[in-house]
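Re: the request from the purification team.
They wanted to know what the chain is likely to look like in 3D before they choose a buffer screen. I agreed to run a prediction and write the result into the notebook, where they can find it.
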Amino acid sequence: MNYVLGVDGGASKTLCLVGSKDGHILGLGRGGPSNHQVCGLEGAVAQIAHSVEEALAQAQASPEEVRLGIFCLAGADLPEDYAMLSQAVENLGVCRKVVVKNDTMAALRSGLSQPWGVVVVCGTGTNAAGRAPDGREIILPGLGHISGDWGGGAEITQEIIRRVMRAWDGRGKPTVLLQMVLDSLGASSPEVLLQMLYHNQLEQHQLLGLVPLLFEAAYAGDEVACQLVREVGTEVGVTARTLIRRLSLQDKDVEVVLAGSIFKAKGPLLIDTVRGVVHEVAPRASIVLPKFEPVVGAFFLALEAAGVEVTGMVRENIGTTLPQELFIEKR
């Protein structure tokens, strides 16, 4: 039997799905971080190999039986990244043909009902990509501020800190976020918080934990929080509509997938803002929150690269055999 596999490798984990060409999922493998920019090439490849080998063992499939593998990897940003990663993954010998893509393509395909559309990913960082009906693809570099990016959790956290400090010293408007931030970070006063920040006494996960507080405050009607949420939504919308324009999708029923932890936030303000900005140039666009984790998108891509049309029956087979952990809970 011929199988295909899809891998989604990121800064926190790596997942691999192995399945048949009719959409039956036969194996799920898990690994640790596989962004070579974070853990080095050797470490990244080791985690990719672990996830694939686990999935193959579960599926009782040999590498020779896997016709094609799509590896959607964080850190595949520049041409030299693709060349290096492609060679490294090919050397693993885990499938007959290797295709490396940026991880945004897995997030894109996981949310689409068709093979083309646009995605904006907002987790710790942010990235975006799009695909036209004729197969043209655009992937933004996603390299942070040096490539003009803004709107991920790290940047949002910086803005939360900036605005609560301005609220404290009087340069900004009062906000309930000030006390929420102090409580969350265990600071008895703004002065203590300044000391903690200045001496780098806070871990990244503690700071990222402020992001849900922003959306809670906005949901409660806090003016400062609402303004920041609208700014994030505007940036996401501008990113999406830029891709829509560049791919000439303004007059089409284009799906805009919003993937990543930021879009799981409380309240409708963020999504409503994104929708309004996108509709300024693409009135027929629809906003989609994916129901599957990105690794399912990588598996869809593998099926399509193998010449399989992802029909309703194929989707049904995937849905009935997919491990429950790969479904995304709706808000």
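For the purification team: The domain at 117-290 is CATH 3.30.420.40 (Nucleotidyltransferase; domain 5).
Please add any questions underneath this entry.
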